[in-house]
Amino acid sequence: MTTDQRPDDETLWRRAAEGDDDAFAEIYRRHADRIHGYLFRRCASWAQAQDLTSVVFLEAWRRRREVSFDGGSVAGWLYGVAGNVLRSSDRSLRRYQGALRRLPALRDEPDVADDVAHRVDDEARMAVVARALERLPADDRELLSLSAWSDLSLTEIAALLDLPLGTVKSRLSRLRARLRDDALPPDGATPAPSATSAPPPRPLGAPR
Questions:
Q1: 100: pLDDT confidence band, cut at 50, 70 and 90?
Q2: What integer pLDDT is reported at residue 123 of this predicted model?
């Protein structure tokens, strides 16, 4: 099957809602790495990002019949779920832990707990970025993270956050200017790397 013949996300979602496990597994394969990368950059922990990614797709699996997309974006909705899961991560992980093993799309996924030394280094760098982001108000942190670390357009981000497109653009311009001006953290330590240029995490289960 050529790339042009692949079903789009909305078609796959509709099939998943009708009981096609393989269609949901394909949605997972298309978007899991992006969601994991987004979560890793927010929480600076490979293990936590892996767990939270599983929770995101478990939530998607559970809601596949009640959520529909008519010109909307499956990817945008998944990023929205990821943001919600991140904000309530402790409660979500406790509640979903036992159910994760039953999700068809996740049963045979490889463990990502390899290459510990590389991941510890990635986590250390991302922890600096995460601390810089924590100094921002929650709404600004969410906007900047989606802009820098998702594959969503500004129009999709505006729809996800329920904001006018012009507001998104002006707030992003202000945030980027603030980050440029905030050269040193309060303790005078080494400048934090820009949140918009943080190192990309490796795909789930990818070899080094």
A1: low
A2: 61
* pLDDT band at residue 76 using 50, 70 and 90 as cut-offs: very high
Is 203 a domain residue? no
Distance CA 76, CA 55 (A): 16
Is 5 or 85 the better-scoring residue by pLDDT? 85
Residues 8, 148: Cα–Cα separation, whole Å: 24
**Closest residue by Cα to residue 123 from 39, 207, 21:** 39
| Number of Cα atoms under 13 Å in the Cβ half of residue 174 | 11
**79 closest CA partner among 145, 12, 155:** 145
Mean pLDDT along residues 53-71: 89
Average pLDDT rounded to a whole number, residues 51-74: 88
**Against a cut of 0.70, is the pTM above it?**
no
DSSP 124-143: HHHHHHHHHHHTS-HHHHHH
Q: Domain range holding 49?
A: 8-197
- Classify residue 52: in a domain, yes or no: yes
Structural domain contains residue 3? no
Q: One-letter amino acid identity for 23?
A: A
The total number of structural domains in the chain stands at: 1
Residue 207 lies inside a defined structural domain of this protein? no
Tokens of 96: 């979903």
Question: In this structure, what token pair is assigned to residue 100?
Answer: 């994760």
What is the rounded CA–CA span in Å between residue 169 and residue 153? 11
